[in-house]
Design a protein that fits this description.
Layout lengths: L3 H33 L1 H4 L3 E2 L2 E2 H31 L6
Helix pairs in contact: 1-3
Length: 87
């Protein structure tokens, strides 16, 4: 049986792992798709604009909102999983 201190350490480790993955996704989309791979992505047209341009202007924002939504949803699950929820 996990002690409260052990449970909190596991919770924190899970939180850091989730943050690392989500920030990596965000960095790849915003910097990778919007800057580094923009020229290659511009060969794909989306609504008349190149995909690289679209990712730099709109796509990275949509992905960032999705990342925030997923983080909140996953952390609520972690709260219940590690029995650290407030309600």
């Amino acid at each position: 049986m996990a002690t409260p201190d052990n449970r909190r350490a596991l919770y924190w480790r899970a939180n850091l792992r989730l943050l690392a993955v989500l920030l990596s996704i965000w960095a790849f989309v915003s910097f990778g798709c919007g800057i580094f791979f923009a020229d290659a992505l511009d060969n794909i047209k989306l609504g008349g604009f190149g995909l690289g341009f679209w990712m730099a202007q709109q796509g990275s924002i949509y992905v960032f909102v999705g990342v925030i939504w997923y983080y909140v949803w996953r952390m609520n699950k972690y709260d219940r999983e590690f029995d650290l929820h407030e309600d």
